[in-house]
Amino acid sequence: MVHRYSIGVGLDEQGRITGSVSIVQGCSATGHDLEEMLDRLDDEVRRRLHSGDDLMDVDIELVGYDLSTT
């Protein structure tokens, strides 16, 4: 089973790329590039929603990028 989460993407004041999963309260991450931010955001979703599961067995897909300025 794949868990899909829509994310919002933008830039912070320092020019870093930020991403958040609005359906998961307080779930956000930053990175120097899109790939780094997505890796960090994936880890954050896993920590917040799947802490009781074997994290390696959970398929997460971050979809629906909403580009905005934060």
Structural commentary:
The protein is of the alpha+beta class. The protein has one domain: Double Stranded RNA Binding Domain (2-Layer Sandwich), CATH 3.30.160. 23% of the residues lie in helices and 39% in strands. Strand 2 (17-20) and strand 3 form a beta hairpin. The chain is globular.
Could you give a quick summary of the protein structure above?
The chain has one helix and four strands; from the N terminus they run βββαβ. It has 70 residues and is of the alpha+beta class. Strand 2 and strand 3 form a beta hairpin.
Architecture blueprint of SSEs:
Blueprint: E1 2-11, E2 17-20, E3 28-31, H1 34-49, E4 59-67
Parallel strand pairs: 1-4
Antiparallel strand pairs: 1-2, 2-3
Which structural category fits the helices and strands?
alpha+beta
Give the ordered list of helices and strands: EEEHE
Count of alpha/pi helices: 1
Total strands: the figure is: 4
Biggest sheet details: 4 strands, mixed
CATH secondary-structure class: Alpha Beta
Whole-Å distance between the termini?
A: 32 Å
Q: If you compute it from the alpha carbons, what radius of gyration comes out, rounded to the nearest whole angstrom?
A: 12 Å
Mean pLDDT: 84
What features would you highlight for this structure?
70 residues, alpha+beta, Double Stranded RNA Binding Domain, four-stranded mixed beta sheet
